[in-house]
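Q: Given only this backbone (376 positions), what sequence would you predict?
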């Protein structure tokens, strides 16, 4: 069994080096992969994998937090659970807290994104790049548009999550190796901040609060189980870890803009998530009772940078040159939701959705030059 696994990895590695797998478009053009895209992980990171019992080619999950300016890479260990491997400080992100709504708003995306090999760009002008796949089916259902939203190097962002070249080299290699292990995709969970009761209480006046509470469902599923949440979209809402109701013999079919089918949430996952939800709601209620200060809806800054880079890149945080996008977000009430067997999927699903958002790199004036840099 071990020899077969090693042989498969070697075959996949050879195919990757030939440009046949994770970047299919390179295989089509016949362009060889640059050395930076095939570089081995640093010895220190390989040692950390061994220490944490994480096979080199096991699946990964990435989590991005804007306000903290951190990107986490979680990796599946030999028990089958995802554990934190490494946290990378984000060098630069643009826009403000909140999802991307439309092209040119400089917003970085928030939500759940599935990264396939074709979204890996080894020839980016920003050293290496991983396309988030924005807009996903949720974004499209809510009429959000845009493109070219990346996690890339060069520490320069116009709607992207920008890392240093050294960081993206590691992150890209971890993503590449997860594909070499046979997984067809990996998940990126992008959040405005760590979805703790304290942070949600600080941002309780934001028109995005209902949307963030919806994202918190998937966040809680992951944090309480250390399993990648299954993500579907129906009725313009995210749905997590759904399965057919008991005694149902009909497969679930989700239409992003249509009515949600009858489903239940995996009861083992729902039970753990509900326990966390109840504890978080008690803490949140206490914080409101204590009248903790509320953060401004709009920061007035164009994005952020982890404090680790402030001295190295002075002057890259600036006053926003665009109108507060929150000013045109609709103020909609949350939508109550429970699954059919009575176990709570989530007390509230959010519904503050409007137009889409995208990397300013997609603006028409830049499109022709950027396509070569970001697309295959």
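A: Predicted residues:
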């Amino acid at each position: 069994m071990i020899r077969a696994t090693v042989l498969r990895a070697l075959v996949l590695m050879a195919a990757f080096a030939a440009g046949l797998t994770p970047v299919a478009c390179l295989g089509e053009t016949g362009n060889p992969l640059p050395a930076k895209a095939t570089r081995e992980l640093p010895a220190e990171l390989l040692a950390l994998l061994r220490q944490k019992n994480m096979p080199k080619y096991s699946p990964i999950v990435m989590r991005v937090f804007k306000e903290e300016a951190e990107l986490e890479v979680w990796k599946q260990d030999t028990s089958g659970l995802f554990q934190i491997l490494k946290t990378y400080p984000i060098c630069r992100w643009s826009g403000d807290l909140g999802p991307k709504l439309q092209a040119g708003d400089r917003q970085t995306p928030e939500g759940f994104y599935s990264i396939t090999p074709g979204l890996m760009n080894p020839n980016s002008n920003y050293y290496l790049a991983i396309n988030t796949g924005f807009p996903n089916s949720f974004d499209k259902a809510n009429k959000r548009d845009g493109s070219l939203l990346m996690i890339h190097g060069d520490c320069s962002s116009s709607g992207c999550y920008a890392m240093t070249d050294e960081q993206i080299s590691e992150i890209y290699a971890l993503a590449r190796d997860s594909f070499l292990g046979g997984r067809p995709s990996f998940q990126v969970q992008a959040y405005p901040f760590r979805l703790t009761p304290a942070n949600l209480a600080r941002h309780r006046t934001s028109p995005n609060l209902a949307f963030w509470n919806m994202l918190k469902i998937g966040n809680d599923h992951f944090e309480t189980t250390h399993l990648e949440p299954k993500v579907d979209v129906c009725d313009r809402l995210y749905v997590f870890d759904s399965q057919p109701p008991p005694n149902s013999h009909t497969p679930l079919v989700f239409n992003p803009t249509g009515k949600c089918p009858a489903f239940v949430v995996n009861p083992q996952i729902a039970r753990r998530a509900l326990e966390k939800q109840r504890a978080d709601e008690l803490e949140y209620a206490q914080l409101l009772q204590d009248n903790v200060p509320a953060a401004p809806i709009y920061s007035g800054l164009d994005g952020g940078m982890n404090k680790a880079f402030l001295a190295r890149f002075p002057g890259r945080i600036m006053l926003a040159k665009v109108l507060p996008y929150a000013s045109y977000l609709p103020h909609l009430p949350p939508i109550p939701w429970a699954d059919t067997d009575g176990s709570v999927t989530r007390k509230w699903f959010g519904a503050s959705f409007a137009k889409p958002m995208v990397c300013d790199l997609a603006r028409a004036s830049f499109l022709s030059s950027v396509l070569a840099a970001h697309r295959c």
